[in-house]
Amino acid sequence: MPTILPISDLRNYTDVLKRVDVGKPVYLTRNGRGTYVVSKIDEYDKDATVEELVSAIKYGEDSVQHGEPIPISQVAQDLDLAL
């Protein structure tokens, strides 16, 4: 079950941060609507890496579908990825 708190709970931010763990972000609401997510930096970095990988895969798939295959080294260079 996700942890959902009103943003006003940040007045006592140490209690909010104690509830954050890897795989268990805290969702903050404003006026009853989800506005922010507080997560561990390791989790954020992992998500960013996965997003980069998905982007690279889509880029490669698009190049193949359009009949213009691009070498993986060129894809990595275009996306600023280290192989």
Return the average pLDDT rounded to an integer: 89
Structural category is alpha+beta
What is the straight-line distance between the termini?
37 Å
Record field, number of beta strands:
3
- List the uncertain runs: none
Per DSSP, the total helix count is 3
Question: Strand fraction band?
Answer: 15-25%
Helix share bin: 40-55%
For the largest beta-sheet, the strand count, sense and barrel status come to: 3 strands, mixed
What does this structure look like?
With 83 residues, the protein is α+β, with helices and mostly antiparallel strands. It has two domains: 3-38, 3-Layer(aba) Sandwich (YefM-like fold), CATH 3.40.1620.10; 42-78. 46% of the residues lie in helices and 18% in strands. The chain has a three-stranded mixed sheet, with no helix packed on it. Strand 1 (3-6), helix 1 (13-18) and strand 2 form a beta-alpha-beta unit. The chain is elongated. The two termini are 37 Å apart. The mean pLDDT is 89.
Fold blueprint:
Layout (H helix, E strand, L loop, with lengths): L2 E4 L6 H6 L7 E5 L2 E6 L2 H25 L6 H7 L5
Parallel strand pairs: 1-2
Antiparallel strand pairs: 2-3
Describe the structure concisely.
With 83 residues, the chain is of the alpha+beta class. Helix content is 46%, strand content 18%.
Question: What features would you highlight for this structure?
Answer:
83 residues, alpha+beta, YefM-like fold, 3 helices, 3 strands, 18% strand, elongated
